[in-house]
Amino acid sequence: MIGNKLSLVQVVMQNEGNIISNMDGNTVMLNIKNGKYYNLGKTGGVIWGAIKNPASIEEVILTLLSNYHIEKNECERQVISFLEQLYAEDLILLCS
Fold first, then answer.
1. CA 80 and chain centroid, separation
2. Which of 11, 23, 50, 73 could bond 95 through an S-S bridge, CB–CB 3.0 to 4.6 Å?
3. What rounded mean pLDDT belongs to the chain?
């Protein structure tokens, strides 16, 4: 991490202890440790699936760019912001 920001080369992965379900195309999750529910939405579900195994944030962004019509800088900004929120909730692990 650089300051409070994740970098594109940072490798992240899902943290254990979550029950995942699909509700009408949206990925929802219950964190067993804190008892909170999270609605990751459709795109958040794609990101969550992309980090089932360790992956760099850059790899996650490339996955999204190949599936969605979005400008690269905007995709980077949104993905990093989303992953920072997941990290703050202890839902993902930093691997490097």
1. 8
2. 11
3. 92
